[in-house]
Amino acid sequence: MWVERLGRTFMARVHDLDLSRPLAAAEFAAIDEAWFAHRVLCFPQQQLTEPQLMTFSSHFGPLEKHVLQDYHHAIYPEILMLSTIVEDGKPLGLADAGSYWHSDVSYKAKPSRASTLYGLEIPDDGGDTLFCDMVAAFDALLEQMKARLDGLQAAHNYHHRNRVLVDQKGIRRDLSAAQKAETPEILHPVVRTQPETGLKALFINPGFTVRIEGMAEPESTALLEELFAHCLQDRFCFRYKWKKGDVVAWDNAVTMHCATVLDLPAGSRRTMWRTIISGDVPI
Ligand SMILES: O=C(O)CCC(=O)C(=O)O
Ligand SMILES: [Fe+2]
User: Fold this and answer.
1) What is the pTM of this model?
2) Which pLDDT value is given to residue 159?
3) Which residues are tagged catalytic?
4) SS3 250
5) What does the alpha-carbon distance between residue 121 and residue 105 come to, in Å, rounded to a whole number?
6) From the CA of 96, which ligand is nearest?
7) What is the reported pLDDT for 19?
8) Cβ 116 under 6 angstroms from ligand 1
9) 36-53 residue pLDDT tens
């Protein structure tokens, strides 16, 4: 295998590695090295069964099931179906795929460490995934801002996001009482440290972060807006154009991402399998 950097500060393509077979310890060591150096890894030209994707994903940690059971794979609930296709009135997967900037599962006490996506059906044009490097974004902040953020915590709220999506597009349903109980609002540090590398990253996202704890609302909103505008500058972002058979795996602790599925023309077919790897409480 060999690794090709794609973005200015992050993102890489890992060539010549077949994820369908059992990988050797040395191969996993090389993947881990690339993981910490590039934060988002793309593995082209894969041909995987569900268990093969799950086995590969498990290298990064235990798999967990998404709170939206409606979109679990019928046989393998650890796989979440993302799909623009509706058959007999039934969506084959989550249709919007997360078309807003977010870090997966940041709304739980233990946010997801990593996620993988496997492209089964890819439209000829569009349906790209955008990524943002939150290490580079943190690094580029003025020292004054870094000092201001030191020790701050932010609230992450899934109910809020779901409500926006229900109201906005009617593409999501209200959460059930059980789904709400599973996702109470939670606080995380605004700046987190990746334990393995010591790298610091901003850990807030427009999708789920609703306020800075202990700050008056106008000040909190202004600070979040300023930070999001800073992060989403082109120099910290990368647009990933999919090919069928790509597996993309990313570190949710140090990146954000955004699907662009809502921009696709009606009738476009895009289907992905997705796994979520459990993480630890952010520090
Ligand atoms: O489908 C995409 O482009 C991204 C989907 C997403 O946000 C996710 O799987 O976590
Ligand atoms: Fe996501």
Assistant:
1) 0.95
2) 81
3) 102, 104, 257, 274
4) strand
5) 25
6) 1
7) 98
8) no
9) 999 999 999 999 999 999
Please, are residues 186 and 108 in contact by the beta-carbon 8 Å criterion? Answer: yes
Question: For ligand 1, is residue 259 a contact (CB within 6 Å)?
Answer: yes
Judged by its nearest atom, the ligand closest to the C-alpha of residue 93 is 1
Q: Which amino acid is at 218?
A: P
Residues 157-187 pLDDT 10s: 988 887 887 887 667 778 888 888 888 899 9
d(CA 2, CA 13): 8
Residue 60 identity (one-letter amino acid): F
Q: Which atom of ligand 1 is nearest to the CA of 242?
A: 3
Helices (H), the chain: 25-38, 50-58, 134-139, 143-149, 158-169, 177-182, 217-231
Residue ranges in the chain whose pLDDT is less than 70: 169-170
Q: Which residue do the tokens 């807006």 mark?
A: 225
List the domains of the chain with CATH numbers: 2-277 (3.60.130.10)
